């Protein structure tokens, strides 16, 4: 439809008048907050709306009305600096709501912010939030105390520090009925000059509330609490409440201060729950803890992946775990790097490898295995055909032996690939080697 | 007694001498002994005394040392207390420092552990992403490999199928050719056998043979003729074929020649095109050069114009300055003229020299006349100046004389009490300094004269 220019009229605009439906949709867009009309529209009209809706609409309105689509994509692209949709199950809506909730929790100041704000958002997003990755938890505001001259000399008599309790998860986790993954870390980003070590620790009361909250969340599959200065007592408390949890599959307590007592509690958890992955890297577990875990491994256990990187289990613990592997038929990945192990453990592991047929990935890096350990591993790997990865870097094993190890592993991998291919397509006749 | 006295008398002198001697000896011995004893005694005493003094000295020194020691001990005890307090304080400070450092160390260790933990986490995350990517790439690679394999195998199958088809075709053709060959061989055999049979059947009866020979001859001649005919035909056909071949070869040659010519022409065309392009490039280059030069020349012209303008302005400025200077010179000249006029007037007044009318009446020509008048004027100027100076000096002398004379006159008037007529004022002579000195002298004489006059 063309329009002729009428030269006498300076207000004449050349653009065609949009059709009535589009005008109506514009008005719907402008008044969406008061009157969210969406369901009654056709698919094309819905597309139109989603592309044009204002991004500053409150979540309460949009979350329940708008489905997964371009609107949420626009929201994410505009408001989130860096986001990867694949982490959130390729759903823009889910990603936006999860990030929104995370941000609210991260900016929640315990005695200042009204918990109702959190509850409002939770009631809206509970159906969609499946994964929460909280990267900071704020502490209550503390007024700066008057400085006296004596303070400099009194530093080693610790002043009474008021308890810094963080966000109470009880109000949150009960209502999130679809939550499957929870990542927590008790720290504060960008604290600048207000740094204090107690901002990076979780208090005992935090632990209590968190434990109760976890017990109430029945759909949780992955729980990760790292770098929060969690010691044995807190670990025991959490484990007590996680015992017999119906759906927990993956537990990650890395970078904490868990010792032998905590390790013993976790081993009890291993026997009772159906855990598949356990990550305890960078803790303070020593021989006793490792023996407890080994005991749990040798009993009927569903654990597939065990990570004890950077603990202090030493040869005793290493040998205990190696012996446990003789009876274990579920463990696929074992990481014992950086545990002050020596060739004694390497020999024990080698003995096990000749018989074990489930272990696929073994990591013994950063231990002092030396040549003796290397030889034992080479001898074992030549008889084992399931193991695909054996990481021995920084173990003082000769280059020659590590090369041999790699060659054996490669052979294993190729044979497995061949069997895979044979299963897939019998006609293929190419060969790599 | 007297005997004894006599004896003694008798002896006395001798015995007395001897006795005296003996006594003296004894006394001497006694004295000697006494002396020796004394000496011994003294020695003993001396030794005793020496021992005593030594002992006393030791005692004194001991006592002195003990006293000193006691004093020192008290001093040292005081020092000990002070230094103990000092050391305790220092130890406390050092302990404090150590504890502080321990606290710092623990804090630092905690920080490093924290940083390492977060670093590890980031690395794990990165590793996981890398492995995912590796897996994707691996899958892509496997998929690509499978595609290639499938395509190769399908091509291979196609080629095999084609090959077999062709083989079948060839086999069928070979088979048909064999059959033809066999048929032909069979025909030949038939004909040969027929001939042989015919020959054998017709060899016994001679007439038949003759007739047959004639027939044979006729048939043979017919056959020969037909053969010849055929051969002729074949030869003709061969000739025709040869002609055709020649024609074809000629045509081929012509086409080849034409092709060559066409290629040559094409090459020439390409060459000319290249030349043309080259020429065009040259032309454009020249044009650009000319444009550049033109612009440069324009620029130069503009700059030359500007320079000339600047020069003109400078010249105008300089001309103005020169004109001003000229005008200043003119003013100066006029001033000089006026001064000269004044000098001349003065000169006329004082010297009655013939006036130099020529330079005075020709002021506009002053600057253009020769330097003689200027020198003349200068001489007159200097003269005028000197005269002026002399006049001034004369004036000052005269005023001094005046004062002196007035004083004298006052004195005289005080003495005379009479009206005295003032000195006749006469015109000051325009003579140099010694005249003033003479005048002074004459002034005194005048005063004397005045005295004598009155």
Automatic annotation (TrEMBL), chain A:
Single GO biological process annotation from the record: microtubule-based movement
Gene3D superfamilies: Ribonuclease Inhibitor (3.80.10.10)
Keywords, sorted A to Z: Cytoplasm, Cytoskeleton
Pfam families cross-referenced by the UniProt entry: LRR_6
Domain of life according to the entry: Eukaryota
Listed GO CC annotations: cytoskeleton
Entry-linked InterPro entries: DRC5, Leu-rich_rpt, LRR_dom_sf
Protein name: T-complex-associated-testis-expressed 1
Species this protein is from: Oryzias latipes (Japanese rice fish)
Automatic annotation (TrEMBL), chain B:
Record keyword Hydrolase present: no
Compartments it resides in: Cytoplasm, Cytoskeleton, Flagellum axoneme; Cytoplasm, Cytoskeleton, Flagellum basal body
GO biological process, one term: cilium-dependent cell motility
Source taxon at top rank: Eukaryota
A GO-annotated cellular component: axoneme
Predominant cellular place of this UniProt entry's protein: cytoplasm
Keywords annotated in UniProt: Cell projection, Cilium, Coiled coil, Cytoplasm, Cytoskeleton, Flagellum
Domain Dynein regulatory complex protein 1/2 N-terminal, residue spans: 22-122
Coiled coil: 255-289
Family indicated by similarity: Belongs to the DRC2 family.
Matching PANTHER family: DYNEIN REGULATORY COMPLEX SUBUNIT 2, NYD-SP28 PROTEIN
Function: Component of the nexin-dynein regulatory complex (N-DRC), a key regulator of ciliary/flagellar motility which maintains the alignment and integrity of the distal axoneme and regulates microtubule sliding in motile axonemes. Plays a critical role in the assembly of N-DRC and also stabilizes the assembly of multiple inner dynein arms and radial spokes. Coassembles with DRC1 to form a central scaffold needed for assembly of the N-DRC and its attachment to the outer doublet microtubules.
The name this protein goes by in its record: Dynein regulatory complex subunit 2
Gene: ccdc65
